[in-house]
Structures are given as structure tokens and as C-alpha cells.
Amino acid sequence: MARVASTRAKVGYTVAAWIVALVIFFPILYTIITSLKTEQEAIAGFNLIPSFTLSSFEAVQSQNNYWRPFTNSVILAVGSTLLALVVAIPAAWAMAFSPTKNTRGILMWMLSTKMMPAVAVLVPIYLIFLRTGLMDTRIGLTVMLMLINLPIVVWMLYTYFREIPGEILEAARMDGASLRDEILYVLTPMAVPGIASTMLLNVILAWNEAFWTIQLTTTNAAPLSAFIASFSSPQGLFWAKLSAASVMAIAPILIMGWFSQKQLVRGLTFGAVK
Amino acid sequence: MSSTFRALLGATALCAVGSAAVAQDNTTLTIATVNNGDMIRMQSLTADFTEKNPGITLEWVTLEENILRERVTTDIATNGGQYDVLTIGTYEVPIWARQDWLSPLTDLPEDYDVDDLVPAVREALSVDGTLYAAPFYAESAMVMYRTDLAEAAGVTIPDNPTWTDIKTAAEAMTDKDNEVYGICLRGKPGWGENMAFLTAMANSYGARWFDTEWTPQFDSPEWQETLTDYLTLMNEYGPPGASSNGFNENLSLFQQGKCGMWIDATVAASFVTDPEDSTVADSVGFAQFPNKEGVDNHGNWLWAWNLAIPASSQKQDAAKTFVAWATSKDYTNIVAEAEGWRAAPPGTRTSLYENAEYQEAAPFAAQTLEAINAANTQKASVQDIPYTGGQFVAIPEFQGIGTAVGQTFSAALAGQMSAEDALAAAQSTTAREMARAGYPK
Amino acid sequence: MATRQTQGLARLMRAPAIILLLIWMIVPLGMTLYYSFLNYNLLNPASVSWAGWFNYQYFYTDPAFFAAIRNTLVLVLGVLTITVVLGIAIALLIDKPIWGQGMVRILIISPFFVMPPVAALIWKNMIMHPSYGVFADIARAIGVQPVDWFAQYPLTSIIIIVAWQWLPFATLILLTALQSLDGEQMEAAEMDGAGPVSRFIHLTLPHLARAITVVVLIQTIFLLGIYAEILVTTNGGPGNASTNLTYLIYRAARLNFDIGGAAAGGIIAVILANIVAFFLMRAVGKNLD
User: Fold this and answer.
1) Is the per-residue pLDDT at B12 higher than 70?
2) Looking at beta carbons, which residues of chain A come within 8 Å of C8?
3) Does A110 reach chain C within 8 Å, measured CB to CB?
4) How many helices (H) and strands (E) does chain C have?
5) pLDDT per residue over B84-108, tens digit each?
6) In chain A, what residues touch C127 (CB-CB under 8 Å)?
7) What class does CATH assign to C17-288?
8) How do residues B328-379 score in pLDDT, each as one tens digit?
9) Which is nearest to A191 in space by CA: A81, A92, A83, A80?
10) 20 to 30 A Cα–Cα from C59, which one of A102, A270, B69, C211?
11) Which homologous superfamily is A68-230 in?
């Protein structure tokens, strides 16, 4: 039975949904607006119409070159994600298609490694990084971020792979497909969307990591989290500048997120849809 | 610590010494700085340095104060050698120097003129007569007040006010209906925020943090009086939400004309008299940090941001060249040329205060120098004390203790506990931490 | 289909991830465990000695310890409640036919992309500041005294900030689950005269159970480790009003540079987190199969 949604109801829902969306988005919107204000305007009370000056962005850029931390953020986020996928895909695959009675336990254990407070292990890790020459290197930090997010990646991929019906495999096998063919031609195409969304989520998590990326870098590998730390709470009130720096730090990932939100949404299911 | 580990540390230290002699060509210095105005200005003025020293490239790590402190402490304590020049406060210098973490700043270039450094500052940065850090700018604390409001209220604030004078003036100037509050003081918790002020205030009330046996003294009548008067001042004449106000918040309140008086760091003087940012620029008066009648003590607040060279740096010579440049008399001239005399880093050099152009551009110069020179960091309290430091106690444990105590005092200001309870909590927290750290040592 | 050959291969494929995570867990954990029995202050590296159980005892007897545990639970439960309840409400709303659905979804998802310290800075300065924040502007506009959020309601303020960050995550998972709800079943129920409330309780909610479980599980893992938001806004105060366990450890490690004490705190936190995880799995784990 097809129901014609009454236009009036649709208007109501639309208005309500937009209000909710704008309220949630407001802090970000206001930051963007403030970044386009002068410092005097920024503390002069509520005002949604800035004078559209780019002076704060220029000031930020001249104080601290944006492009190096930006490049580092991209390399770290993408690098750690790819590395995590290389390790996690086979593991998740094996767990999904040849589960043992320990599989669930192993998965839970992996997640529980994320519960260790990072700050408690800072000094040991710092010493390891110093002694192995990994301090302030992109490689060291990439591995670090990979390890931090690996449990989530394995878990996401596992739940995703598990939804691939086993019968397809059996059918392929009956037709005489080898294990290699099976993986290459049957499973990979089905798994790609899941892998893609996992990748996106992991890039976001790696981009936003702000403890290790500050503690284990000085200049060469410092990403945008360190960039932001050079603008928070200075002497004096510089909110337009702070807003500009914030916008610069979150804009790339925000834009990426907007463009890929459909894929991301699928990834975020964690097999929650059943 | 395991002996292997110690051996490793030792080996790294040796490496550092061994390679220090490497030639200076194409050296890259990694400099850790705090993100305040003077430091940022320095980054933009380094062209002069790189011209004179073509072989040295500068890499900056600019961080917010707390993150900088964490980051730099971890590195220096693990002998990491990630930085060649550090920006550190007067609090760290003596502690780190005693650990042999800093290279002594001996044989600075001839024209550096060490004797030109303001004596109180130089003393605070020296251990056993050896200088371990070069001051970039320095500050004490003083009263800044609105001359127009004082006049309108019919009160005068003497050059050397007592706390009674301050209280009287605060009462007279307060006009809550028009959002004018008689006094603005720090309330935001932190050893460098509210505790810097409260420790200085306690000093001027004759209180002390510890007796000679390192027993905390929050149960003393002096501390009781300090905290009670502070709470009275703030509750009756202070702005709302004072328990989250730090230096920045008070600065903007004062600039917008909402404070009758503000007692804080002397560097604020150049901000509140800056007509571009301050609405009250032409009606600000200055007075020395108050004291309690009969107590000869004006808080002894002394802070400086300094450049130091970690012993673990492998580029000692280049680093020393840079430190000498950035804290030289010449640097002051470079700043004056680029941005005017007002912007010159204050508090570190006597010659700056003898400069007529500076005196004219900075009406607060004389008061600032007087406040800095009056600060005695070797004996901050009128009672006998086992520690040094002015608005802080120069022991490694103070960061933690000061912040914990600051939290309880801030809670008292927010009305969440009484003064008595706050003092009792401060006493037990401090006693606990000191026992853990093994005092008396 | 599980032949011996595929079993062996599966083991091989699992191995790298498991081995890496084992190393990643055991090495730091082992070192933390070792440090937790030492008197080791980073600022005094020369005097390191065996401490026995002292660090644990010291951490446990910290006057802030129980407050921190309570605050940790309030924080986690508060954020979970807000995100799940609001998440369901918002998911239901944007699942309806509306104009500009794509754009609405983009706006709602956005907070998830903001770095925690940036989020905290934005809320602290732009939104909740007692003089210049938007909330203060609103309060003045309607003629009431602005609220000093971080002094008067410190933990609540932090819950609001964190909930804002995690609401998109919850909403999206719940929305995806909602979209797979069987429309015919819903209509049948409607024809049988079931009202919207009863349909929600008897059809929608059970259908969402699995998604809610995922939200609770993943968020709990992240929420137990919150500290950046506290550091930027309240520093754990006033008093200990917004100190959680992670922040307490942070304080020991980064303010006191007490490596031994922080390590002991870390071990205690791991044990507590695992206890929470254990009960969580017992309570909701069956939803995951």
C-alpha cells in the first residue's frame, strides 16, 4: 500500500530536522564565522555576520606554516590506515570465515587493549622511541597510530565480512574455483565497500589523535594536533586567530567526511544492521 | 632504575658531549617556545640572526604553556636531546640546573654584558653563582587601577598600598549595576594561575608554605587571614564567575573597563595602556603590590621566561650563539625598530630602563623595575623558610601540590566549600604529597 | 567447509594482527607494571628505588580517587544516555521524508570530525564562556545572569561537550539500523490499531537493540579514556568536581611527573576498565551474535 506522505507533515519534519541539524552544527559554524572576524569583533558579543577578513588566517599562517603539519597529518592518517588494513584484512577474514571457539574472545581482548590509559605508558614508549631513533619520525608515528586503531579496524572488518554469505563461497568452490580465485574474484568485490568505509573511519580517528602525535614529535613529524597546540590559550584573547587555526585543522577532514559520508555511514554499522 | 638503563643514559650523555664539538656549518637548531606575544614576535624577527649566522637554521616548536612544559620536561628528564634551546620559566631553572640538565651559560660573548641583567632576575636564574638561563622577559606583580574611577569614588591609592587601602578602594569603586567591579583577581586553578597570586598575597600577609621542617602551614593564622580576605574581596567586590578567571580573562575585563583594580603581572601594564586594545588606556595608575600593615613584604613575585640550553643538546655552540643573540641588548633595539619601544621585552636589562625613549613610550617602566627589584626570591616570607622562589616554591613537587591546592581554593571561591574546609584540605593534600616525596630531606 | 588446509591458512592470516597487538599490549603493560612498583619521579631520576605496593596504596588513598571513579561513571553513563536517547530521536526524525536530507545528515555528522582538543576549545571560548560565550549572550538577551558553566556545573559541561562529539556517531548507527526496519511489519501493526508509541516500544526498539549495543560498547571504550576535554576546560576542578580516573592519572604523570604513581594508576584503570567491560559483555554481549 503506497502512502502519500502529506505535504504538511513533510514540512513539519523538514523544519524540525533542520533546526536540530543547525543546533548541532552551530559550534562549528560559529567557529568558521569567528575566524572571519577581526579580534575586536570576535569578543564584541553575538554576531553572525563577520567582516569577512582573512587577516586571522594570514596571521596564523605567518606565525606557523600550515603546510608541513598538514602534509604530516595526511601522511600519518593515510599511512597508518593502509598499514592497519594490511594487517587487519587477513586477520578479520580468517576470523569471519574460519571462526574458532576463541574468535569472540580474541576480538574482545583486542578491543580491551584500547582501554589502557595512554598517559600511563608514555614514559616507556618515549624511551623506546628515543632508543630506536623513531622519535619525531613519520614512520614511528604511523606505526603507533596503526597499533592504536588496529583493534577497531579488525572488529569493523570482521563484522562486515561476516555478512558476506557463506553459500557464495561454497558455490564457487563447487565450480572448481581455487582459493586464490575465490578471494580475488568472489570475495574481494563484495568486501570492497566494507573496506572502504573502515578506511574512512580510521583516517578520521588517526587524524584526530592528539596525545601521541604531540608527545612523540618535535618538528619533522608534527601534525595538525601540534599546530593547534601552538594557538590554544596564548597570553591575551585571540579568538579570531584561534578560530582560524581550528578551522584550518579540521577543514580537510571535515570536507573529506562530507564527500564520503555515504560510504562512512555504511562502515559505521559495525554489523549493527540485521 | 636498572643498571642497564642507567648505563644507556650515561652512554647517551657521552655521545652528546662527544659530538658537541662538531663544526657549526649547516646546523639546525630546534627551539621550543611558549606561544605568548613576545616569543611569537621573536620568531618573526630572526632575519637579523640568520644573516649574521648563515650556517644556522632555526626550527621552531611553538606550544601552549602547559603542553610545552610537559613535552620539554619529558625530553630533558629522559635525556632525549630533541631540543637545542628551551623556553623555560624561573621555576624550572634552579631545579633543572641542580639535576645537571642545563648547560651553564659561562663564557657568553663579550658584548653580552651579563652585569646589565636586572640583579633580581639574574639571581633567580643562577645556582651557586653560575647563570643557567638567559632571561627573555621578566615580570613582577603590581596594582593596576583606574584613576578615573578612583577619583570619582573619592579614594586615593597610595604608591605603597596596604590591603586595607585596597579593600577600602574596592568597596568605593564597586558599582555592580553598571558592571564595574572594585577588584579583579585570579581565581582559575593552577600553580601558575591562582596560586601564583595567592602565594604572593600570603607572602605579603606574613604567611609561608612550609616551616623549616617542611611542614605545610595552611593551618596557620596567616594563611587563614589571607584566604578569608581574598574570598571577602572577591565575593563582595569581584566580578561574577571569578573562579574561572586567569590572567587573560582579567586582562580583557580590565581592558573593557569592568575592573576598578587588578593586581597581576607587570607585563599586563603594557596591554592595559595600549590604546588599540584597551578602552581605558589613558586612565590607568600603578602602585606596588600591597602588604599587610606591619609586614614588610610585597609578595616577592618574580617570573621570567628564559632561554636555556639542555645538556643533552648536541649543538651547544650554535645554541649558545642563538641564546646570546635573542637576549642581547641588540635584540631590544631590533624590536624597537620594528615595532616601537613599547614592544621591547621588559624586565631583563637595566639599560632598557635607563633608555629615555623607552621611559617615554612605557609610562609603567619605573614601577615595573621597582617591583622586579623589590622581589626577593631567596627569602620570600618574613618567617624562616627552607625553600626559595617567590610566588612559587622551587621544588619539583610544587607543580602538582600547587595545582591541587589551587583547585581547593578555587572551589572555595566558587562557593563549593568554606575557607576552613579548603585550608584543611590544602593542608592534608600537601602533607600527603610531601610525605610521599620524602621530605624533610 | 573447514578443511585442515584452510584452518592452517586462517591461523596464518590471523597471526600478524594478534602478534602485533600482543606485543603492543604486553610490552607497555609489562613496563607499566614494572614501573608501578618503583619510586620513580621523572624530575628526580637519580633516586629510583623499589616501592612495593606503595604506589597502589598511595593512588588508592588519594582523596580524589573515589570522586574520580564516581565522575568517570557519571561521565560515561551521562554521555551514553544523552547520545542514545537523542540519537534515537534524531534518527527517527531524519528517517522521515524531509527536504535536504543529505545536507541535514552532513550537518549532523560534522562534530564527529572535530579533534577533541579543538572541540573543547570551541565550547570553552565560543559557547560556554561566562562573558563572551553564546550561552552568555543568550542569557543576557533574555535578561538573566549568565551561567559560569565550568565553575558551577563542571561535570555537566564536560558531559555536554563530549555528548556533542559522540552524538553523530550514535545517530548514524541508529539511523542505519532504522532504515533496515521492515516497513510492512510496521504497517501491519499500524492497521492492527497500534499507536505510534506502542509501535516504537514493540517494534522499533527491539530492532534497534543490536545497534544500541554497538553504540554503548564502542563509546564506552572511548569515553573511559576522556581527558583532553577536561584538561582544556576545567583542569579537573573546581576541587575534584570534574576529575575522572584518566585525568587523575594524567595529573600524576604530567603534573607531578610521578611515573611510579601514574603507572600504578594506569594498572588500576586497566583493571577497572576490564571489570566494566566484563559486565558490559554479560549484559549486552548476546545482542551481538
Assistant:
1) no
2) none
3) yes
4) 14, 2
5) 999 999 999 999 999 999 999 998 9
6) 27, 30
7) mainly alpha
8) 999 999 999 998 898 899 999 999 999 999 999 998 999 999 999 999 999 9
9) A92
10) B69
11) MetI-like (1.10.3720.10)
